[in-house]
Amino acid sequence: MTDTRTEILHKNYEAIHRNGFQGVRADKVVAEMGITKGALYHYFPNKFDLGYAILDELLAPHYLKIWEPFERAEKNFSAVLLGILESYRDFAKTDEEIKLGCPLTNLTQEMPPLDEGFRKRLHRITHQMQLQVETGLKNAQLSGEFKLDFNPTQTAFFYLSAIEGGFSVAKAMQSRAAFEMVIAQLKQFSEGLKV
Questions:
Q1: Are residues 136 and 71 part of one domain?
Q2: What is the CATH number of the domain that holds 76?
Q3: pLDDT digits (tens, 9 = 90+) for 137-166
């Protein structure tokens, strides 16, 4: 059984994904859940605290879990990397997911200029993801599986930028095919890293 606080987090996360942070009225979301405003404010004194909790407790763990297998891999780096790229493609497999876009990308485009708390959290999540990709790339180089002629830091930024940018372009074009082209190109690029 999910507790009230967790239920509030999840329902507001869904609303934010659909409407953006600024477009959500948290009190309205909890009213639709049959929960009082008092319960909302008991757990989250204001909307920003709710947003921070969604980032810290839902989005950060989710996105960091995606790249964890690559960061921790000891062999078969290419297969692990290709599997992660395939999981991104699977995420964007329905028209609804393309329409709504990537939750992390959406918040990254909406909130950093407006709120320092969001900016810091989104920076931390993105930076941690970049370090995970970079670590995996360095380990793949050290193992002899990947070439040594590329910069792992720059390449990690390239992967994240291409994926998150792919979500943005696909959302703007309302085209799953656009996102799939990005993933296909990243897979081809990944093959070129191998020795």
A1: yes
A2: 1.10.357.10
A3: 999 999 999 999 999 999 999 999 999 999
pTM for this predicted structure: 0.93
| Alpha-carbon 57 to chain mean position | 13
Q: Which of 129, 186, 135, 190 is nearest to 163 (CA)?
A: 186
Closest listed residue to residue 30, CA positions, set 12, 49, 53: 12
Q: Is the domain of 134 the same as that of 92?
A: yes
Whether the CB-CB separation of 145 and 75 falls below 8 Å is answered with: yes
Q: Are residues 67 and 13 in the same domain?
A: no
> Nearest-CA neighbor of 133 among 44, 70, 60?
70
Q: Helix H segments across 143-175?
A: 152-173
Residue pair 83/44 in contact (Cβ under 8 Å)? The answer is: no
DSSP state of 76: -
Based on DSSP, count helices (H) and strands (E) in the chain, helices before strands.
11, 0
Expressed as residue numbers, the domain containing 114 is 52-191
Type of residue numbered 172: A
| pLDDT tens, residue by residue, 175-191 | 999 999 999 999 999 99
